[in-house]
Specification:
This protein has 172 residues and is mostly helical. It is elongated and about 55 Å long.
Length: 172
């Protein structure tokens, strides 16, 4: 998967950028923000729905406040993914995200995106989170469980229920 963001960075460049940002380089912080923002929005939108922008903002705040704690700069995107999913679920729960999805990566017919968004809208934040991790991010159930801080069996059952609910809603 290509790294998200306005410019493409090689993994060693991302690691150097993180190290520079951790050392207080404000230009590196700005570049890192530019690199991470689209990625974070893509993760938060399908989970937090109409609160996706707020979840993305909360995620970026946590990321930059905690950047000094990241020990392996090459693990940046996995670390950010974990924070984004956690913040998106938290935001959706707190605010009761029940509006249509604004940014679902869906090629083709715009009506299809609206229909998919409507179906996702009916799922719980927890089910949306595991579904997004598995279907959009391609993460297996074990890694999804780690990111969501739940047992693997719970991740598998949530994914199964999310898929079942999605199919049922889609067909109705």
């Amino acid at each position: 998967m290509a790294q998200p963001g306005p410019r493409h960075y090689e993994p060693h460049q991302v690691a150097a950028l993180v190290s520079s940002a951790q050392a207080g380089d404000t230009m590196a912080v700005g570049d890192l923000l530019d690199l991470l923002t689209p990625y974070v929005r893509r993760l938060c939108g399908p989970i937090a729905l109409d609160e996706g922008a707020d979840a993305a903002q909360e995620t970026l705040i946590v990321v930059f406040r905690s950047l000094g704690q990241l020990r392996s700069p090459e693990a940046l995107f996995g670390w950010v993914r974990a924070i984004a999913v956690r913040e998106a679920v938290r935001t959706a729960r707190r605010r009761g995200a029940h509006a249509e999805l604004s940014e679902l990566p869906a090629p083709g017919d715009p009506q299809l995106a609206v229909d998919v968004a409507d179906v996702l809208h009916r799922l719980s934040p927890e089910h949306r989170a595991v579904l997004v991790l598995r279907e959009l991010e391609g993460i297996d159930e074990q890694r999804a469980a780690q990111l969501l801080a739940i047992p693997v069996g719970t991740a598998k059952s949530r994914l199964s229920r999310a898929r079942q609910s999605f199919r049922k809603e889609w067909q109705s």
